[in-house]
Write a sequence for this structure.
């Protein structure tokens, strides 16, 4: 992967320029600044300044956009590599999932900052330009409905926002895994053939 501080003009083999940022790597809402004109943190990219579709990589797997609507969360056939999907809530784009309303302000503040950084650093496994809306403050956008992963677990790109802003507890299995990883998402994650499941 090329230097993330520079726009991408030539994607790697098997990839294409991100359809959202066209290789600039920057959030379209704040133009990479992480803050809006009024000084408020950008709630499209939650202050990261990175494109929410490609997570700042500037490129996507060939045909990724066409596959967004075909994504299935059913367990994959035996033998396929899979990650466990955690943190399913209605507000994060999962229909028929419980609301997180009763869980806000119930998470521990211990390690919250490290957990939020970890959640934001996940690699994009499933991407979609569809944005979430904060039901507690309709002026804010927690991010997209994309799914991020660390190679073992998967979660909504909006999960970090609710953990940070509203004290939502991090799913216990994922938090324990984060700690075992020393709060650092692995640099190299093989996303090829990786599928999402409700269980490992």
């Amino acid at each position: 992967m090329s230097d993330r501080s520079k726009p991408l003009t030539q994607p790697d083999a098997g990839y294409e320029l991100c359809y959202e940022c066209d290789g600039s790597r920057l959030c379209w809402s704040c133009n990479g600044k992480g803050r809006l004109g009024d000084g408020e943190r950008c709630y499209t990219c939650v202050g990261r300044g990175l494109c929410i579709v490609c997570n700042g990589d500037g490129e996507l797997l060939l045909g990724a956009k066409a596959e967004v609507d075909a994504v299935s969360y059913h367990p994959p056939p035996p033998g396929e590599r899979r990650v466990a999907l955690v943190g399913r809530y209605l507000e994060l784009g999962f229909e028929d999932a419980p609301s997180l309303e009763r869980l806000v302000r119930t998470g521990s503040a211990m390690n919250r900052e490290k957990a939020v950084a970890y959640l934001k650093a996940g690699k994009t496994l499933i991407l979609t330009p569809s944005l979430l809306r904060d039901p507690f403050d309709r002026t804010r956008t927690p991010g997209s409905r994309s799914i991020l992963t660390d190679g073992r677990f998967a979660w909504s790109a909006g999960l970090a926002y609710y953990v940070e802003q509203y004290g939502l507890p991090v799913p216990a299995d994922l938090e324990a895994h984060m700690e075992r990883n020393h709060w650092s998402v692995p640099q190299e994650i093989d996303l090829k053939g990786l599928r999402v499941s409700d269980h490992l």
Q: What stands out?
A: Confidence is low (pLDDT under 50) at residues 67-76.
